[in-house]
Specification:
By secondary structure, this protein is mainly alpha-helical. Helices cover about 75% and strands about 0% of the residues.
């Protein structure tokens, strides 16, 4: 766990540095509220650990990791507006705190800071741009052409959540100078982890206690959102088994990678377990 804590501290330190540089002061306050209000930092940790797994250093990947975290936070700001959710990570969501207009500007500011970090590498910029296209298609699908069965739900989960996870891992491989085969294998690993994460998130929304989860529950049912328990016949237990299957396939993808740092790889394996067992 010491390795993870050092990596998380490195990410948090760099994240604070980036946020501190945001101008003007009003936007700085809003970005700070969103980016520094907590969070598991799963995506940047994937970036750093993927980089180390294939021979890079944490310092090689930390900017890309912070960048993907900012993209993720920008998407959450918009999600909360769409869902009318007033709570995020146990505190007021951006729109509830500042209003709809400032929240949208905050999302834009987060994206701007993120792409400033990616701009040093054209491959990094391309990977994140592709992920954002997928994310946008996923969000539009959720709003307008809702999935009606398990196969369509899985496509939505891949676009809505898996795409940013894939980008996070591919960014780590790019930071380490990996070949395309390695970039793809690490990308598949993370995409499947992301799908498992989304399935488990849907289950928690259906069955968890809001206070324990740190955000409102029951939103999927109330808004008729296409969660795994709303658009399929799966019980929460069966959905958890689907998440388990995706995590197992993620581990299979990781087996294709030539490993330079077994300890970092072991944490990627642990993450595949965590996303299907987490309680919040």
């Amino acid at each position: 766990m010491e390795l993870l804590e050092r990596r998380r501290a490195l990410i948090e330190e760099r994240l604070v540095e980036v946020v501190d540089g945001v101008d003007p002061e009003t936007l700085n306050d809003e970005v700070r509220h969103v980016a520094l209000s907590g969070g598991k930092r799963v995506r940047p940790m994937i970036t750093v650990l993927a980089c180390e797994t294939v021979g890079g250093t944490p310092e090689d990947a930390v900017d890309f990791g912070v960048g993907i975290e900012l993209v993720h936070n920008a998407s959450l700001v918009i999600d909360d507006i769409i869902d009318r959710s007033e709570l995020r990570r146990g505190t007021e969501s951006a729109w509830a705190e500042f209003g709809h207009g400032p929240a949208i500007v905050t999302s834009d500011g987060l994206l701007g800071e993120a792409f400033a970090l990616f701009s040093a590498d054209p491959d990094a910029t391309r990977v994140v741009a592709e992920a954002m296209v997928e994310l946008g298609v996923g969000e539009a699908t959720e709003l307008a052409a809702k999935p009606a069965n398990e196969a369509e739900y899985m496509t939505l989960a891949r676009r809505k959540t898996g795409a940013l996870f894939r980008a996070a891992s591919e960014l780590g491989a790019i930071a380490a100078g990996s070949d395309p085969f390695t970039v793809e294998a690490l990308g598949e690993y993370a995409e499947r982890v992301g799908i498992a994460f989304q399935i488990r998130d849907d289950v928690l929304d259906a069955v968890a206690d809001a206070e324990d989860l740190g955000k409102p529950t029951g939103h999927d049912a109330a808004l008729k959102r296409p969660s795994v328990v709303q658009v399929t016949d799966l019980t929460p237990e069966e959905a958890n088994r689907r998440a388990r299957s995706e995590a197992d396939r993620a581990i299979d993808a990781l087996e294709r990678v030539d490993v330079a740092d077994p300890e970092a790889r072991s944490y990627l394996l642990d993450l595949a377990e965590f996303v299907v067992e987490r309680e919040r």
